[in-house]
Amino acid sequence: MIRDMEQSFKLDGRTYSVTVTGKPGASVRLNTLKLNKAGTIYSNYFIEHIVKLSSDAQNFDYWLVNGQKYDNPEVILSSNIADNGVIRAEVFLK
To answer: What is the SS3 string spanning 6-75?
Structure first.
């Protein structure tokens, strides 16, 4: 299926991974994946694709994405910010 997608959409074939860590009381979304508690969600994306990371927790404070702080509850991720093909994001609550 992956090969079919690469050919159909003329994708490079390279991917990057995104791992998101939630806290108790967190409500986070990575593209279509949702986490409403403490835990981790993980997915891979083709390098040509961007991904929306968001939190609608009332007590949202900031995201830490590969060491960079983002104060906005919605962040657009891309392969450009991946570190060796990996993006690690963690939500922090007030």
So the answer is: HHHCCCCCCEEEEEEEECCCCCEEECCEEECCCEEEEEEEECCCCEEEEECCCCEEEEEECCEEECCCEE
Q: Are strands 39-46 and 15-22 parallel, antiparallel or unpaired?
A: antiparallel
- Output the pTM of the full model: 0.86
DSSP character at residue 83: B
**Confidence at residue 5, expressed as pLDDT on a 0 to 100 scale:** 59
Residues counted in the chain:
94
Mean pLDDT for back-to-back runs of 10 residues, the chain (94 residues): 58 88 90 92 92 93 97 97 97 94
Write the burial class of residue 64 (CB in 10 Å: 0-12 exposed, 13-18 middle, 19+ buried): middle
